[in-house]
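Support reply, case 0932

Customer input (verbatim):
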Amino acid sequence: MVKRRWPFLLGASLIGVAASVVAKRKGTDEKRNWAAKYIGQWQFIHPSQQTHHQLMIDPEFRLYIDGAKVNGTLQELSQEQLVWQDQFGYHLKVTADQQQPTFIYDEADDITYPLHQKEVSQ
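Our regenerated output:
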C-alpha cells in the first residue's frame, strides 16, 4: 500500500508560509520601533551665521527645515543614519544614537551640525 504524502507536504508548506509571514511582520514592527526615533523636531545652529534652525522629520521620514519641505527622496534609513537626497543631488545625513538623532551633515555646505531636542514652548 502506497502512503500518500501530499497532505503532510501541504501542511508543512502552510506552516512554513505562516512562519515566514509572522517573521516578516515582526521584522517590520522592529524596524518601526527603532525608526521612530527619527520622527520629531530638533534645533541646530549655523556656526558662522549664528542663526538657529529647526529640523523636523515627519512619520513618512520627509524632512523640513524651518518649516519648509526639503524636496527629494529618502536614500537610506538604518539604525545609525537617515540619508535624504535633495532635488539638487546633495545629501543630508542625520546620524543617531540609540535614542534620537544627534547630528545632521549637509553635503552642500560640507558642515555637520549637532542636533538638540526642540524645546517645547509654554
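We compared this against your earlier run and they match. Two observations from our side: The domain at 39-117 is CATH 2.40.128 (Lipocalin). The longest helix spans residues 6-35. Please reopen the case if you see a mismatch on your end.
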